[in-house]
Amino acid sequence: MEINIGINQADRKEIADGLSRLLADSYTVYLKTHNFHWNVTGPMFNTLHTMFEGQYTELAMAVDEIAERIRALGEPAPGSYAQFAELTVISEETGTPKAEEMIRQLVEGQEAIARTARSVFPAAEKAGDEPTADLLTQRIQLHEKNAWMLRSMLA
Fold first, then answer.
1. pLDDT interval class at 38 (50, 70, 90)
2. Residue 20: Cβ within 10 Å count
3. Transmembrane segments in this chain: where (predicted)?
4. Position 155 pLDDT exceeds 90
5. Which member of 34, 61, 78, 114 lies 3.0 to 4.6 Å from 83 by CB, making a disulfide possible if both were Cys?
6. Are 140 and 115 within 8 A, CB to CB?
7. Residue 76 carries which DSSP code?
8. Sequence-ordered list of residues with C-beta below 8 angstroms from that of 130, at least 6 positions apart, any chain
9. Is pLDDT at 16 greater than 90 in this prediction?
10. What secondary structure does DSSP assign to 76-144, as a single string?
């Protein structure tokens, strides 16, 4: 059945492609944050363990919301490690860095997600896609705050 939500197919595809990159970045940071939650050690253990849990829990909900928006636009949502690896700008971590390096990597990841979300705005605005613009605004605000909170631990 044709989709008739007031956004043409080409614009829906362009927006969904941007959201797919956002989904891949978000999932990669989710996985990295969960890894760091499990493996953090040192004098900031309790603080970081708790902070990382809050952040990966929020990201788990966010990836579902992003994927559902892609589906509402009529496009398939990427859902495999291979697809995410192809779409993301964030490097995965296969080792167990020290706590300070974990924080630094997560700051970079949070900032990258904010930049990716911001890059989708022009297509959403051009198409009058207010739900996507709202989603992007919320993601940017949250990731900029998370980056600030993490960055403050490095000062």
1. very high
2. 22
3. none
4. no
5. 78
6. no
7. P
8. none
9. yes
10. PPP-SHHHHHHH--SPP--S---HHHHHHHHHHHHHHHHHHHHHHHHHHHHHT-HHHHHHHHHHHHHHH
Q: What is the homologous superfamily of the domain 9-85+96-152 according to CATH?
A: Ferritin, core subunit, four-helix bundle (1.20.1260.10)
Residue ranges per domain, the chain?
9-85+96-152
What span, in angstroms and rounded, lies between the C-alpha atoms of 68 and 73?
9
User: Phi and psi (nearest 5°) for 129?
Assistant: -90, 80
Q: Average pLDDT, whole number, for the chain?
A: 96
Locate 16 and state its tokens: 């969904």
Q: Which of these, 22, 11, 5, lies nearest to 119 by C-alpha position?
A: 22
Instruction: List the Cα angle 102/103/107 in 5-degree steps.
Output: 120
Average pLDDT over residues 98-116: 98
Q: Can you tell me the distance from the alpha carbon of 49 to that of 63, in angstroms, rounded to the nearest whole number?
A: 21
Given a cut of 90, whether residue 1 has pLDDT beyond it is: no
